[in-house]
Amino acid sequence: MPPKPVIAFQGLPGAYSHASCLAAYPDMDPLPRAAFEDVFAAVRDGKALYAMIPIDNSVAGRVADIHHLLPGSGLHIVAEHFLRVNHHLLVVPGTTLEDLRTVESHVHALSQCRRMTRELGLTPVVTADTAGAARDVARRGDKTVAAIGSALSAEIYGLESLRANIEDEEHNTTRFVVMAREPVSPRADVESVTSFIFRVRNVPAALYKALGGFATNGVNMTKLESYQIGGTFVAAQFYAEVEGRPDDRPVAYAMEELRFFSHEVVVLGVYPAHPYRFEARRRALEAETRLLP
C-alpha cells in the first residue's frame, strides 16, 4: 500500500486545527508542527501535501499575524473549511466540579467561555494553546485544574469532559484555508472564491477608486482587511476575498481597475466555496426577513 498523503497543521495533537484536518480530510495523516512557518515549510519541502491554516474566527476575529505570513509562504490557497468550535471542560478522570479551582487554555478559548468560568467561580490561566493545556492537565494529574479544549484532546490525553459545548456563542466557528504548492482551477460550474492582497497608492481616495470596479461590475466582496507593513503608519496592505474567479468577466474587469489604482496585487488562491457559506447566507437572509415590518 502506498503511504497516505499528509496534511500539516500548527499546534499539538488535539488542537482545533488537528480536528479540522480530520473533518476535512479523514483519509490523510495529520502532521503537527510548532509554528505556521514550519507548516508552510513542510508543504514546500514535500513532507506534506496540504497545510491547514486557521484564518479567522466568528468570535475572536482574524488569527494574529497570519495575513503577514500568507503572502510569503510560497503556497497557494486551494480550499477552505469551516469548523464549528465546541469547547469542553476537560479534567482528570474522577474529578468533580467541586474539586476545581482553576481552568487553563488559550486566551481566545478562555474569553469564549466566560459565562461558564464565572458560574463555577474558576480562576482562568492563559496558556499557549488548547491542546497544550489539555496535555499539561493530564500530565500533572491535579484534580483542582481543568482545561478548555476539544473532544479530540480528551481522547488523545485521556481526560474526561465534565461539560460539553461550554462556549458562550452558538455560532463559534473557525474558518481555515487549505494551502498547497500548486494552485487549482475550480470547474466553471462550481461557485468559487478568489483571495488576494494589494496595496493602494498613497493618494486621496485611492482605496475608494481601487474598489469601485467591484461595485460597478456587480462583484460581491466578502472580506476586506487592512494591516500595516514596513514598520510605518502610512503604508497599509489589504487582504480581500471576492466571489468568483479572475477569468469571470465581471471579476476580470474589477481586477483590472484595481491594478490601475494599486500596486502589488497578488492572487493567493482561487478555490471552491465551502457549503457553509451558502448556509450562513441563508440564515442571514432569514434573519433580515424577520426584521422587516
Automatic annotation (TrEMBL):
GO molecular function annotations of the record: prephenate dehydratase activity
Signal peptide: none
Gene Ontology terms describing biological process: L-phenylalanine biosynthetic process
E.C. number: 4.2.1.51
Biological or metabolic pathway of the protein: Amino-acid biosynthesis; L-phenylalanine biosynthesis; phenylpyruvate from prephenate: step 1/1
Keywords associated with the record: Amino-acid biosynthesis, Aromatic amino acid biosynthesis, Lyase, Phenylalanine biosynthesis
PANTHER family for the chain: PREPHENATE DEHYDRATASE P PROTEIN, PREPHENATE DEHYDRATASE-RELATED
Protein name: prephenate dehydratase
Native source organism of the sequence: Roseospira navarrensis
Classification lineage: Bacteria, Pseudomonadati, Pseudomonadota, Alphaproteobacteria, Rhodospirillales
